[in-house]
Amino acid sequence: MNQLALTESVTDQKLQCPPADDGMERFACPTPDRQGRYHCIDDHVLCDGFVDCPSAEDEDRHACMFYKTTKAHLDVLADALLRTSQKPSLNRE
């Protein structure tokens, strides 16, 4: 898990995490650990049943219900778009 060493107040700025090695976006936990460091986590560890953020924000049951529902709908949409783009065109000239 990567950590950001931020010493200034984060209430006035958005935390930025470097992308993961595979290029995927990473997210900063909203609260620091005991040493004042902010953790960056990959999206695949959100709502996975394991605490990755110091105050367990990545496993908040209300946020996870919304996240999992939204992700499921987006996955269905992405699959439908992929299937549509792979079908041969019926209007060939």
Automatic annotation (TrEMBL):
One of its GO terms (biological process) is positive regulation of MAPK cascade. The keyword Disulfide bond applies. Signal peptide: none annotated. One of its GO terms (cellular component) is terminal bouton. InterPro entries: LDL_receptor-like_sf, LDLR_class-A_CS, LDrepeatLR_classA_rpt. Keywords: Disulfide bond. SUPFAM superfamilies: LDL receptor-like module. One of its GO terms (molecular function) is transmembrane receptor protein tyrosine kinase activator activity. PROSITE patterns: LDLRA_1, LDLRA_2. This is Uncharacterized protein.
